[in-house]
Amino acid sequence: MATSVRRRVQKRRENLRALGLRPVQIWLPDTRGAGFAEECARQAKLTAESDQADRDLNVFLDEALTDLDDLLPQEP
Asked: Greatest CA span in the chain, whole angstroms?
C-alpha cells in the first residue's frame, strides 16, 4: 500500500527535526503584486543616488575587493 502524502511529509519533518532542524515560516513580498516592480525601481534609484553622494563608498568597496583578491587562490 502506498504511503499517503501526509505520512511522507510527517516522516520527512521528523527526520529533519532529528537532524536538529526546525521549521520556520518566512513571509516575503509578493513579487507578483501590483506596484512591486515600481517599488524596486524606486528603491534602486534611491540607493544609486545615495551611492553617488558617498565619496568614501567607492574607496571602501575597492579595498574590500582587494581584500577578497588576497583570499582567493591565484591562477598559475
From this structure: 68
- Residue 23 neighbours by CB under 8 Å, 6+ apart: 13, 16
Q: At which residue does the C-alpha cell 588576497 appear?
A: 70
Check: CB of residue 29 under 8 Å from CB of residue 22. Answer: no
Q: Which of 5, 21, 3, 4 is nearest to 13 (CA)?
A: 21
Amino acid letter at 37? Answer: A
- Say whether pTM exceeds 0.90: no
Q: ∠45-31-25 over CA atoms, to 5°?
A: 120
- pLDDT tens digits for range 23-44: 999 999 999 999 999 999 999 9
